[in-house]
Amino acid sequence: MPKTVKKNIPHTFEGKRLDVAIALLFPKVTRSQAQRLIREGNIRVDGETAKSSHKVRIGEEVTLVLIEPEVSVHEPQPIPLDIVFEDKYIVVVNKPPGLVVHPGAGVKNGTLVNALLAHCGDLSGIGGVLRPGIVHRLDKGTSGLIVAAKTDQAHLLLSRQIAQREVSREYHVIVWGLLDENSGRIEAPIARHRVHRKKMAVDWQRGKKAATRFSVLERFCFASYALASLETGRTHQIRVHFSHLGHPVFGDPQYGGRTKALSRLSGDRRREASHMLHLIERPALHAAALRFKHPISGELLSFEAPLHADILELLEAMRRN
Questions:
Q1: Which of 48, 103, 116, 217, CA to CA, is 20 to 30 A from 95?
Q2: Is residue 75 situated within a structural domain?
Q3: Is 139 a catalytic residue?
Q4: How far apart are CA 16 and CA 14, in angstroms?
């Protein structure tokens, strides 16, 4: 059953945006969640729907309708997991490449969610019936660290840390070509591709702000090995940003990291690069480090995951070459 909560705007909130005021009035609701609730019509001001940009006034009555999360309908499946950390609130997993994080279009079973339901018995319901426990995502082809929430409170507080950019996520990535700078920052807005709806793209008109920092670790004859960190967490962000620079992630078929990048080479380099591509069947991208505050205790947690075997083999081959 929906739960209705009402509060009045205090004088200290006068003139603030509605989504900001909601996050302040209801500490368990993040600003992004407030924006979603506003879009869905589950927040009213003096009985009327309003936009996130509405400037609140003293004494206005804000009504918040909270929909109880649905119980997950997914079948627990005993899929082996590499558990890095676990307590009664959260679980951190080193995800292998090829494992889909949650069920979606065309994928009903065999996901990280199915595996976690079998391992934990229960997960937070805030992610909804399709994504129980999932606080942030990793693409199917990306290996490395991901945290899931077991309780709704943990989920809300972790989501807030991500929204406030208090979670550190570092990736190791191999990209085509030689990056000119030893370090840099890519800032380019990202939106759903206007034609290919399964892809994302840099879009200066419709895109949401996105920023990625990087530093080069090694350079090879036709590729660069780098450390990338997220300032924002847009879908496919690292893959889209490096492709936008003209340096798609090595092995990434969706953003030009296989046949398209290979076609730019010729002769011996093309043959060598083609051999390297046979060593990896996915984007050469690994979530190597994850740092955040424990949502309940506040303790700073830091985790690292070693490179997956296929990226290690690829790096060794590039070094020999």
A1: 217
A2: no
A3: yes
A4: 6
